[in-house]
Design goal:
about 160 residues, alpha+beta, Immunoglobulin-like, six-stranded mixed beta sheet, four-stranded antiparallel beta sheet, 1 helix, 10 strands, elongated
């Protein structure tokens, strides 16, 4: 009887240890849904615009990774055109979206409740390259666990 009691306590201790290790692992390495970041939509007055989308980092520590913006051809735009970027179909919404004008260095950060950005095109004739950075954070320490980049370039005609 004593052996059975010791064996039951040993099994309970092992199960408790496995449970605690799993709990700690999941809280320090949280997972995002899917195998890569979902793709947003981008349109110029409702029509497709030349762009590049890259699921840069997904379900890993993204904080030390560096991204280089791609070289893109400029899409011709008129002064009253509107660019709309939407991510309303994302199952897992990003925690932060950053609109970065690479040409001027201007950055706007959105801590999101919305699921789209409307951007007035620049009226100057030189090309402007933009990058929309989607970021997902997980866990108690707010680790960056997913990051993707939508890049496009416009030039007023």
């Amino acid at each position: 009887m004593k052996k059975l009691y010791i064996m039951l306590i040993t099994i309970l201790i092992i199960i408790s240890i496995i449970f605690l290790v799993t709990l700690v692992k999941n809280s320090t390495n949280p997972r995002l849904d899917g195998k890569e970041a979902p793709s947003p939509k981008i349109a110029l007055n409702g029509k497709r615009i030349e762009h590049k989308y890259e699921s840069f980092c997904w379900n890993q520590d993204c904080s030390q990774m560096k991204h280089t913006p791609p070289s893109l051809p400029a899409t011709a735009v008129k002064g009253d055109d509107m660019i709309e970027i939407t991510w309303d179909t994302f199952k897992e919404k990003p925690n932060r979206v950053i609109l970065h004008n690479i040409t001027t260095g201007e950055t706007i950060t959105y801590h999101l409740t919305d699921s789209d950005i409307e951007l007035d095109v620049p009226k100057q004739a030189n090309p402007f390259q933009y990058e929309v950075i989607f970021q997902w954070y997980k866990g108690a320490s707010n680790d960056l666990r997913g990051e993707s980049f939508l890049s496009f370039k416009v030039k007023a005609s």
